[in-house]
Write a structure and sequence with these properties.
Blueprint: H1 2-27, H2 32-49, H3 59-72, H4 79-91, H5 109-116, E1 125-130, E2 133-139, E3 150-155, E4 158-159, H6 160-168, H7 180-197, E5 202-209, E6 212-219, H8 225-235, H9 239-243, E7 246-247, E8 252-253, E9 255-259, E10 266-271, H10 279-293, E11 297-301, H11 310-317, E12 331-333, H12 350-368, E13 371-374, E14 377-380, E15 398-403, H13 410-420, E16 425-428, E17 438-447, E18 454-462, E19 479-480, H14 485-489, H15 494-508
Parallel strand pairs: 10-11, 11-15, 15-16, 16-19
Antiparallel strand pairs: 1-2, 2-3, 3-4, 3-5, 5-6, 7-8, 9-10, 12-14, 13-14, 17-18
GO cellular component, one term: outer membrane-bounded periplasmic space
InterPro entries: ClpP/crotonase-like_dom_sf (IPR029045), Tail-specific_protease (IPR005151)
Pfam family, one: Peptidase_S41
């Protein structure tokens, strides 16, 4: 027991030392030559591991961008300053999954606990971005009575438009569509902001509402006892929360199902994320209810769904297809050893490290035999690239799918397949993810040698099993219906309303 206590103490001291060193390194300036070595290192790793690096940009143009970047590095920079120079070049590759991890300060357990006992400051609002304008569209706690539709002109005297222009350069969608950036930027805007400015306890907002300017001071308030009790209650995983994949952070569910009319003619499934958690049970129970109800119409809502599990979308498709299907084409890799570069021991605790060490030979064996070569190219074996039978409760009626610029990655893969197979009517706006696939799957987490910035590189080219459009754009809707900021504020849903009206018209003529 005494030895165990010594080990725990040593681990705690080591952790504190590691955090201190990490934070010291984040503010130290790195010389120009070392930064140029980091740029070369990043590009070399991308060339070796990324299976479709020149999909949206030519090698000549990308070579030029990296060379031009190196010419601008003529003085020492901190890792954060370097990040804001290198990430825009990474974004020019136009692969939405490909991005440097922004260098951040690490916190001790004590500091994390202190933050958990306080309310968020910026996260208590919902935002909307149009061009270079930042708006508040929801004030969850009625803070300072700020009205939805209020524009944030400046944060601590810095124009919000400057931040938007700066952060927009850090984000790319798949290809050349322009719908993704504003959706994603509104969600990550304050991640970038706090990485630059830290977690302050106050912030000044200069705002504009109905032509009137006003300045508010936000405070990071301490949570009350009721707030802390509510947090504990939200974290409890009830059967319902598991089935619908409850997210305590925003007090919502990743999956929802309901009938939209009294006679259960129209079923509606909202999927915010293809998380995979309990999804098999959710779809099994949901489609059994839909079949028992004899529903004629199904609406699947994947708006603002950034993607997730390939297994989940393949399983979902089995409830929509009338015949056997293949969801994706064989997934390409750069080499047969690429799967072994996935940082197997990454973020392992000492116990996990020991366990993984014992399992490592099995892991190597499994990964080695998961690849195969065909026509001079290397592929990774995936269940989703094999024929899949429809489920016994597969829906036979008419399907509508709601999409927008926030539909990304797996959301785009399944909607591209549905559109190609003419199995659904897509309503909304062009997806943020590409029609012809993406590079993701699993990742190799590369750390740049001097700045220590992490660069996760997707290793698999994942493409829907369709004839490619080669538009270098997202999945386009069959019916284009846009949603305005005022619609969101007024809780109107023109895309869903169009579908409901269309269904009512069809029912009326039957």
């Amino acid at each position: 027991m005494k030895n165990y206590s010594i080990i725990l103490l040593a681990a705690a001291l080591s952790s504190c030392t590691s955090i201190r060193r990490h934070n010291e390194q984040k503010v130290e300036c790195i010389g120009p030559e070392e930064l140029k070595e980091d740029i070369d290192y990043a590009y070399l790793k991308l060339q070796k591991m990324h299976p479709q690096l020149y999909w949206y940009i030519s090698k000549k143009d990308l070579d030029h961008k990296f060379d031009s970047l190196k010419q601008t590095i003529d003085q020492p920079l901190t890792p954060l300053q370097f990040y804001f120079k290198l990430q825009p070049v990474i974004a020019d590759i136009r692969e939405g999954h490909l991005a440097l991890r922004i260098p951040r300060k690490k916190f001790t357990k004590k500091q994390i606990k202190a933050l958990e006992n306080k309310k968020g400051m910026f996260s208590r609002f919902e935002y909307h971005i149009t061009d270079n304008h930042l708006y508040i569209i929801q004030n969850k706690d009625s803070i300072e009575n700020i009205k939805p539709g209020t524009e944030v002109l400046a944060i601590n005297n810095t124009p919000a438009s400057e931040y938007i222009k700066k952060y927009r350069e850090l984000i790319s969608s798949d290809g050349y569509n322009t719908t993704f950036q504003s959706y994603f930027l509104k969600d990550v805007f304050f991640n970038f902001y706090t990485a630059e400015n830290g977690f302050a306890d106050t912030a000044s907002l200069e705002t504009l509402y109905n032509g009137k300017k006003q300045t508010y001071t936000l405070h990071r308030e301490s949570k009350s006892e009721n707030d802390l009790e509510k947090d504990k209650e939200q974290e409890k995983r009830t059967p319902e929360k598991k089935l619908n994949d409850y997210v305590a952070f925003n007090n919502s569910y990743n999956r929802n199902f309901k009938f939209l009319d009294k006679d259960s003619t129209t079923a509606y499934i909202k999927i915010k994320s293809f998380s995979g958690d309990y999804s098999d049970k959710f779809y099994r129970e949901t489609f059994a209810k839909i079949k028992n109800a004899g529903s004629e119409y199904l609406i699947i809502d994947v708006r603002n769904n950034y993607g997730g599990s390939l297994h989940e979308i393949n399983n979902l498709y089995s409830y929509l297809s009338a015949e056997p299907y293949v969801l994706i084409k064989p997934s390409q890799l750069t080499s047969r050893i690429t799967p072994l570069k996935t940082n197997y021991f990454r973020k392992s605790t000492p116990f996990q490290y020991a366990f993984k060490s014992l399992a490592y030979p099995t892991y190597v064996f499994a990964q080695t035999f998961s690849t195969y070569k065909k026509d001079g190219k290397v592929y990774y074996k995936m269940k989703a690239d094999q024929p899949t039978k429809p489920d016994k409760n597969a829906f036979q009626g008419k399907v509508f799918v709601l999409i927008n610029g926030g539909s990304f990655s797996a959301s785009s893969i399944i909607t591209a397949k549905l559109k190609y197979d003419k199995r659904a009517v897509l309503v909304g706006e062009e997806t943020g993810g590409a029609n012809d696939g993406t590079v993701a799957g699993f990742y190799s987490y590369q750390k740049l040698p001097h700045s220590k910035i992490n660069l996760p590189i997707g290793l698999l080219l994942v493409q829907p099993n369709i004839n490619f459009m080669d538009t270098k754009r997202g999945v386009t809707p069959d019916v284009t219906i846009t949603e305005s900021m005022q619609d969101i504020i007024d809780k109107k849903d023109p895309q869903l309303e169009w579908v409901k009206n269309k269904i009512a018209e069809e029912k009326a003529v039957k």
